[in-house]
Amino acid sequence: MPFAARNQSAPSVINITKSSYNADKLYTDSTDAKGHYEQINVKVPPSVDALIMQAVDDNPGYNRSRQAFIRDAIVHRLHYVHMSQGSTIDPVVIEQMVFRAQMQSYLAMNEQVTQDATMFREVLAIGVELRDWSSVNQYIEQIQNQLETLTLSEGHRDILEQCVADGLRAMAAPPVGPIGSGRGVGPTQ
Fold first, then answer.
1. What backbone phi and psi angles, to 5 degrees, belong to 85?
2. Whole-number pLDDT of residue 11
3. Which pLDDT belongs to residue 16?
4. Does the CA dihedral 102-7-66-22 come out positive or negative?
């Protein structure tokens, strides 16, 4: 999906050694209390997937969701590893890692928006050149949908809104001339 964005807020650190940890609790939330999250994709062997599905089917607390089961398993395993190995996790180090990841995410999103805007301008120029108004209109609509659904900075929003304005302007007053001359004939919709 073009212009994909992630939740960029820094997540709060979960202290798995707190007395609030409960081995009998299901930890299935996909976000923390502030709505922060990270997207993680994993591959598992089919036999592990079958066992996960069996556990999900047997426990209504997972709401028939493999993702809920995996989130719960991660929290419990982290608690076990932390407690059994006497690990000392420095919250400052974790916050620094989160901050670094947040900056990398921001740079990646900025690069993606910039690349997508450049690509749209190239597609727009080709669409106008070929008088392919339905495709030009389709790309404009896709960018407008992204503007409505994504969390973007004001600057990123400005870049994409300018792309839409450029596209609408090209459709409203395309240049006149034969195909291949750099001048279109105009939309006939």
1. -100, 0
2. 38
3. 55
4. positive
